[in-house]
Amino acid sequence: MIWNPEMETMPRERLRALQLERLQQTARRVCERVSFYRNTFDKAGVNPADIRSLEDIRKLPFTRKADFRDTYPTGLFAVALDQVVRIHASSGTTGKPIIAGYTRADVNMWAETCARCLASAGAVPGDVFQNAYGYGLFTGGLGFHYGGELMGLTVIPVSGGNTERQILLIRDLKPKILTCTPSYALTIAETIRTMGIDPAGLGLKAAVVGAEPWTEEMRKEIEAKLRLKAVNIYGLTEVIGPGVSCECVEVRHGAHIYEDHFYPEVIDPNTGEVLPPGARGELVFTSLTKEALPVIRYRTGDIASLDASPCACGRTSIRMSRIVGRTDDMLIIRGVNVFPSQIETALMRIPELTPHYQLVITREKTLDELEVRAEVSDEFFRLIGGEILVDEAHQADHAVHELRRRVGERLRGTLNLNTTVRLLPPGGAPRSEGGKLKRVVDKRKL
Ligand code: DLL
Fold first, then answer.
1. For position 416, what pLDDT does the model report?
2. How many angstroms does the Cα of residue 135 sit away from the middle of ligand 1?
3. Any ligand 1 atom below 6 A from CB of 213
């Protein structure tokens, strides 16, 4: 179902007119109320009256993560703190968290965009909804909670973690919709298996997963193991939290951006030049309706592309691709640019491996070494007689050696880089405890 047909299926011409009007308002507002923007607009030699068309947004200066750090905690707020009814936070650069504030109207708008996400995943009023995103300063829990209540779902605010209890609730309350990170969806799936529960009997319809990078291969895995449809949800604290965009369950190819609230651009991260739809670059968002924390051309650091083609679901909004990496988590190993998602895709094409892995980067002398620790399946582990993987010396055993060689070759083909492959026994790679999973350990002192 489409939660807000008027906004979500608005003809593009009308949508653009609405965006322009809201952009002009936002630009005026930030200049009146936020000294940071007054200064950056001044420096760029632009004022709100210069925005006569949507293209004129290109005259406006960018905002960066570092600007949040430099104005910590609330320097970018456009309202007094007594107008703020909610605070959230996420990790920022060099230790200072990014603080986001919401007025009552912001909370309502956010609930609306989260309701749109849940509906586009297939939720209908009356469904039971298990929300396994973390509650607290993280935006995932409360963001979806309000979205679920707004649309009339029965919300189970279980938060992340305590996986066995999650599964008991799923078994006993029969939620149709599950929200969590993709890595945690896999943890839940695995635990269901070890508890001897048949996933087909659980009756889940859809999972709305995001907050960390994942791949099509992981989607297949989550869908097969939990017997549901998994849709990709994207968002970030600086812009609102979850609910900036979400895939529709019908097509599941690109996430519909809620453009009446968030104006997207993709830029070349080196030159700042705006790129056309289809081109991959850094995502930039301008909020069009936020009160407490409006953002102008915020550089997300996320790399993706936009797709302006019409979607079969009937929504008219532009769609964004998966996030293929970040301008700042891109690993550079011996001069080669490596995105962890490339490695994940390569590993998941090898049937003897599970979707769990860890990347460890070291530099003993001058050369970077990338160790890919890939976890083998139960079947493979049994086949080679268990135990031996645990012992370092046996990593050379024939079947193990052969698999390591194959993995190494696959990675070389994808990355153009030699890696050291280490196989881990089932359960050997780190799992999500309910939130985001850190898969990269960079031990280089750069
Ligand atoms: O992760 C908000 C969120 C909560 C999104 C629940 C989806 C579901 P932050 O903690 O501020 O906010 O992290 C934002 O996470 O810039 C991306 O790098 C990454 N991210 C979020 N969604 C996706 C996704 C929340 N679907 C940062 N795919 C963003 C890949 C994602 N990366």
1. 84
2. 15
3. yes
CA separation for the pair 369, 360 (Å, rounded):
8
Helix, strand, coil shares of the chain, percent, nearest 5, are: 35, 25, 40
Q: What is the DSSP string of 150-162?
A: HTT-EEE---S--
Query: Shortest CA distance to 92 belongs to which of 117, 110, 75?
Result: 75
What is the C-alpha to C-alpha distance for residues 76 and 45, in angstroms, rounded to an integer? 20
Give nearest CA residue, ligand 1 atom 1.
211
State which residues of the chain have pLDDT below 70: 92-95, 329-330, 365, 388, 390-396, 445-446
Q: What is the pLDDT of residue 213?
A: 82
CB 350 within 8 A of CB 410: yes
Set out the domains of the chain in order of their start, with CATH numbers.
1-326 (3.40.50.12780), 331-445 (3.30.300.30)
Cβ of 321 below 6 Å from ligand 1: no
Angle at 329 between CA 134 and CA 216, to 5 degrees: 65
Taking the CA of residue 255 as reference, the ligand 1 atom at the shortest distance is 26
| Atom number, ligand 1, closest to the C-alpha of residue 232 | 26
Strand partners, 281: 304
